[in-house]
Amino acid sequence: MFHTLYLELTRRCNFACPYCSSGSNNKSLWEEEKNVSELVKYILNPAKDIGTNFIDFSGGEPFLYSHFFELLAISNQMGFKIGISTNGSLITSEIIKELKKILNNNLLISLGINSFDSKNAETRCKETSFFLEKLELLLSHGVNVNISITMGKFNCETFANSLKHIREMSLPFNRIPFAPRNSKEMSHMFDKQILKNYLHPALMESFHGLVSFVPFFLNPNDYEQITSQKAFETPVPLNPSIGCWVGSFYAINPRGDVAPCPLLSDNVSVGNVYHTPLQDILFHSELMKAITNRDNLKGKCGTCKYRWTCGGCRVMAYYRSNDIFAEDPTCFIDELSTDELNNLEKQTRKHFRNFVRMNEINKSRMKSS
Prior knowledge:
A nine-stranded mixed β-sheet has the order 6-5-4-3-2-1-7-8-9. By secondary structure, the protein is α/β, with parallel strands linked by helices. It has 13 helices and nine strands. The chain has helices at residues 36-50, 68-77, 93-103, 120-124, 128-140, 159-168, 192-203, 220-227, 278-284, 286-291, 299-303, 314-321, 338-368; strands spanning 4-8, 54-58, 81-85, 108-112, 144-151, 173-177, 249-252, 257-259, 271-272. The chain is globular. Helix 1 runs parallel beside helix 2 (68-77), helix 6 (159-168) packs parallel to helix 7 (192-203) and helix 8 (220-227) packs parallel to helix 13 (338-368).
């Protein structure tokens, strides 16, 4: 469990996105940064001990963290796989060369694009062309990149077209449901009908963004057959993680507060690493133990055939009902006929098999490189 850490190093940012999730628009929080020795002692060393193997460094803007390159070097030496979620504004050829010198190919950079039209600047602060230029620069230097796309009411009608653009660039992507973590703008959240009619059909077009979205209609028996791993042997699917990633990853904000999901940070804390050891927080805190046991889920999520492979979105449950264990209010499974559900299950099985094959190929390439 807990193979991935989403680590926010700073809230400082040189953008001013109006619906910022990380609280970067609140400059009174900018002084919360910790020094490298604190991060290593209280986060990196304990994370390594519990088996975390991937760290996604974020912010704010992580390149504004004063000792970022030093921390990257240490993380690389410790054997972590490294990702960086950035707005890209500070990336230059010189910066990329320095990153490559420190990390070689142990790097995945994620840039955010919410739509491939003029409305992207409304949520991402810059036109799409700005991010595409940064993507081209990174690709020209052989850096692994992906695109993070926030999905909500504001871009639901263009979402399918955005994913089409990403596929045409042969790039992976991950979807982020809009949540009012710090912006408190509830009106941008998608609802059940938007998910059913716009977002979910677009996500089901291919397997390239398959790792984390819900509802995820994979029969646990299919998970066993395709991965040769026993379903329900772990509290949540881990290799690969699918559906809701609570239990597979965890987030730590600049204060040191640990959350079950990055989108719950600053609102739901299971402990603080500067007060309680990370291992105790993740494996012994009552809330974390409860939320990673999907038998504790309520409503249709608690009785669902797919509760182990899906789990519903804990973020949507929390912000819509103030109950992290509540059923996912955006799930539309109860509106599907038997034939519709069977077709979605077959389609999910096909995509999942292709995704697992792609993963195995990528792992083989990394071993041989």
